Automatic annotation (TrEMBL):
Localization (cell): Cell membrane
Name of protein: ABC transporter ATP-binding protein
The organism of origin for this protein: Catellatospora methionotrophica
Domain of life: Bacteria
Classification via PROSITE patterns: ABC_TRANSPORTER_1 (PS00211), ABC_TRANSPORTER_2 (PS50893)
Matching PANTHER family: ABC TRANSPORTER ATP-BINDING PROTEIN (PTHR42711:SF16)
Annotated coiled-coil segments of the chain: none
Entry's Gene Ontology cellular component terms: plasma membrane
Entry's Gene Ontology molecular function annotations: ATP binding; ATP hydrolysis activity
Amino acid sequence: MTVIEVNGLSKRYGDRTVVDGVSFTVAEGEIFGILGENGAGKTTTVECISGLRTPDDGSISVLGLDTRTEREQLRRLIGVQLQESQLQDRLRVGEAMQLYASFYPDPADWRELIAAVGLTDQVRMPYAKLSGGQKQRLSIALALIGNPRVAILDELTTGLDPHARRETWKLIRQIRDRGVTVLLVTHFMDEAERLCDRLAVLDGGKIVALDTPAALIANVGDVDGYRANLEDAFLALTGSGRDN
C-alpha cells in the first residue's frame, strides 16, 4: 500500500527554487530516507508533505489525503518531529506529554511512550535541564502521542554524541515495529545506510537517485581499490567530491 505519493513537487522562495520537480512514493511500513547536504531541499520537502508549507507546483497525497485541502484531517494521522523543535524551558516532561495528548481525540498513553523512549526518570524534569539526547527522545515521544500512522523525523540525531545516536536509531526501528511508516530526513551516511529501506538522494532540490542503500552502493563499484560505501555513492551522485 502506498502511504505517501509526491508528484512534481516544487517550492520557490522569490527567484530561488529550493525543491524542483521532486517525485517519489513511500510504502506502508517503510523507513524511507531523504538524504542530502544542508540546503539540498530536504526540510522544505517534508514540510510540504506534512502540510506545514504549500507547494508552488505538484501534488502530495498522504494516506489518501491532499496536503493542501485536507490538512486538519492529515494532522490527526501523522506525527512530526522538526529539526528546530523547542519547548518552554520550565515545562516539565510529563506536562509536555499531557499537553500534547490533549490535542488529539484518541491519544496514546503518554506514560507508556515516556517509558518507551527511556524518560521515565525525567518525567518531572524541566525541558531546559534535559540533555540533547533526552530532548530528541522527548520530541519523538511527542510526535507519537497522537497514535500516528506516519512519523516524519527531520535531522533528529544532529548534535548527539555517538551513544545517543545509536539509542535513537534503536528507537526509530521500534517506531516502525509499532506499525508506523517513517519518513526520515538525514545528512548522515551511516544513519541512512543502517536505518533506511530506500533512499531518495537530493541535490540542488532535485532527486538524483532513488533506491535501496545497497543498490546505490553497488552502482559505484570499487573506489581506489576499496569496496565503496554510501558516502562514496553519495559523492558520485551529487558531485560533492569534485574539485572546485
